[in-house]
Specification:
With about 400 residues, the protein is of the alpha/beta class. Helix content is about 40%, strand content about 25%. The strands form two sheets. Strands 3, 4, 5, 8, 9, 10, 11, 12 and 13 form a nine-stranded mixed sheet that branches. Helix 1 runs parallel beside helix 4 and helix 2 packs antiparallel against helix 3. The longest helix has about 35 residues. It starts with a strand and ends with a helix.
Length: about 400
């Protein structure tokens, strides 16, 4: 089969690896619009379960990813001058650029053509291929050609955020909340290499404009953020856009969904198909799992014409939609937790951090925070109460949401 992947991110590269391992006779080209070595991110996070999936798909690239990752098992929250630490599941961080290098090198070693600075311009013919995989991100140009068919919907989040790097290396997944005269501002920080960490800063629009961040250029904005997070950074600097030119931008998160994921011989993958709020740290994992599912579905295809591919593409979409439902729910509630931060921020640090860990719960927004904390603590000791909490949460959330609507 002749396959064209439009977009050289983790999803497209890993999909090409899996398809070449299935059948070396596949003719696969990855078309990446950016120059080699260019990336628009810092580090990405994932959990041990993804390593297991990568090991099953391609042990060689899985081994390289693991060796290039840093790991942590603690979470730390700084709220003003108060700090609490929590021991949790093991997490991993890897530089996005390093991840792309590993996957591109592995793809090429298997015979995939990886073409950089190869943009499929608006209005240009799509590559001549049996299958075109649109893995060109949330603003997918391929998807936009058939926007009416795909039924794309985008919902902008309320808060503003900026994706930065720092030379401060964090040994735990770190949250820091700073109060200003204009409201709270906070960051999520985690290491991804020997000398770098990711630092995502977020705040409400009122805080953003009150601090003047909406009017500041990049240098002035970074200087202000360094001042606000001086204790956390311990003399280290914040860094704007990684290796791609331009400046780091304040954004509102775009939650993207599509009514359908395929059109003829075109199929959506990763952020081109769906996005989940960055606060649950699952974007790269979900994109790679899309690639695994699509490759698995195509292994059962009967041929390479659009009609013969259709059942495989439908099976892929059904599998991934089902898997995404709980993740998308968790991401939606996580984003809302931060949008309603004043509800939780004045709690004692241990309680606030416990509810930070429970931010995916559909019940939490509808129960007084301290009562929820007591229920959660009791549920940790009583299996019957734990089952009741899992059953009650979605029902209460749906009922109250309907009444508010």
């Amino acid at each position: 089969m002749k396959i064209a992947c439009v977009g050289g991110g983790p999803a497209g590269l890993y999909f090409s690896i899996l398809m070449k391992r299935q059948d070396p006779a596949h003719e696969i080209t990855v078309h990446e619009r950016n120059p080699v070595g260019s990336t628009y991110g810092w580090g990405v996070t994932y959990w041990a379960s993804l390593l297991d999936e990568l090991e099953a798909g391609d042990p060689e690239s899985a081994r390289a990813v693991k060796e290039s990752s840093v790991r942590w098992s603690d979470g730390v929250a700084h709220v003003g001058d108060r700090t609490t630490r929590h021991h949790g599941d093991e997490g991993f961080g890897i530089g996005r650029g390093r991840l792309l290098d590993i996957l591109a090198e592995r793809a090429r070693s298997l015979g995939v053509r990886v073409e950089f600075e190869d943009e499929i311009a608006d209005g240009a013919e799509l590559p001549d291929a049996d299958l075109v995989v649109a893995c060109d991100g949330v603003r997918s140009g391929v998807r936009e050609r058939y926007a009416a068919h795909f039924g794309t919907e985008v919902v902008l989040g309320r808060n503003t955020y900026i994706w930065l790097g720092t030379t401060k290396v964090f040994d735990a997944f770190t949250f820091a909340f700073v109060e200003t005269p204009h409201g709270w501002i906070w960051c999520y920080a985690y290491g991804f290499g020997a000398d770098r960490s990711t630092c995502v800063v977020e705040c409400s629009p009122e805080t953003w404009t009150g601090l003047g961040l909406d009017r500041a250029d990049e240098a002035d904005g970074l200087a202000l953020l360094e001042e606000l997070f001086a204790e956390l950074l311990d003399g280290h600097r914040l860094i704007g856009r990684a290796g791609a030119g331009g400046s780091a931008q304040w954004l509102n998160f775009r939650t993207l969904t599509n009514r359908t994921w395929s059109h003829g011989n075109v199929v959506l993958l990763g952020d081109a198909a769906h996005t989940t709020h960055y606060s649950i740290g699952a974007g790269t994992t979900l994109a790679l799992e899309d690639a695994i599912a699509l490759a698995g579905a195509l292994s059962k295809r009967s041929g390479s014409t659009p009609a013969e591919l259709a059942p495989a593409l439908a099976a892929y979409e059904e599998e991934r939609r089902s898997a995404l439902l709980p993740v998308q729910s968790a991401a939606r509630h996580s984003a809302q937790w931060y949008e309603n931060l004043p509800r939780y921020i004045t709690l004692p640090p241990a309680q606030m951090f416990a509810l930070l860990g429970q931010r995916h719960s559909p019940l939490l927004p509808y129960v007084p925070p301290q009562l929820y904390y007591r229920i959660d603590r009791a549920a940790g000791r009583l299996e019957s109460l734990r089952r009741l909490k899992r059953w009650l949460g979605p029902k209460v959330a749906r009922t109250l949401h309907a009444k508010r609507g």
